[in-house]
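Example record for the data management plan.
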Amino acid sequence: MGNDRNIGRLLDVMARLRDPENGCPWDVEQTFATIAPYTIEEAYEVADAIERHDMDDLKGELGDLLFQVVFHSRMAEEDGAFAFGDVAGHIADKMIKRHPHVFGDQEGIDSAGKQTLNWEAQKAAEREEKAARDGRRPSALDGVALGLPALTRAEKLQKRAARVGFDFPDIGPVVGKIEEELEEVRVELDSGDRRRQEEEIGDLLFAVTNLARFLKIDPEASLREANQRFSRRFHAVEAALQEDGKLPEESTLDEMDRHWNAAKGA
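Corresponding structural encoding:
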């Protein structure tokens, strides 16, 4: 089937699911807020398929993500706000506007680096326009979405602040800030003040994220890889214990540490 026909089919499927009389009860009762977590989850599953280089899975996950866009668009259409066609038209217009060297007559953008600078300049101008419409002063932090994963949002906030000069001059003070925040965590360990402990842990994570930014390491991707390493090694510990005829809960920490170190060295 052609692309247009399949998109039309998908929109019809969504309309049927949301039909108040004959649709799916679960789909009918959903709202933007209840669907948002699924939208985020589907985006992560797309990223996971890409990391695994699984093109069949990627096709399916992209479909699931597209369904989320259609779901939100359908609810907006029911509210009289906008429809899927408006969403598609808006992003097409935005891409044309942000690529004047492709769709217009702008010259001098002949590398990915130059395009990135041009893109950021246009986004900054759009943020200023939005701030003016809202009747407030623009901020360097405008547009950093609240719904981003915390590590990703921390990195973006730091990058925005750095663009206007609010940044450490080199990596030395960045490492020093981590040591400072770690000491503040130690001070609060025995305080019994849960709120202060949470604040200091947050400050420590923010400082570590800043180090990743300085090293040009994606903190979110780095932590995902750490999670995968932990899972792989712990599975090895479980397998080794099973060979010993034991379960983790029946083993001592020393036994598990021995297998853990073996897994790290493998």
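Summary line stored alongside the record: The chain has four domains: 3-98, 102-133, 150-217, 222-265.
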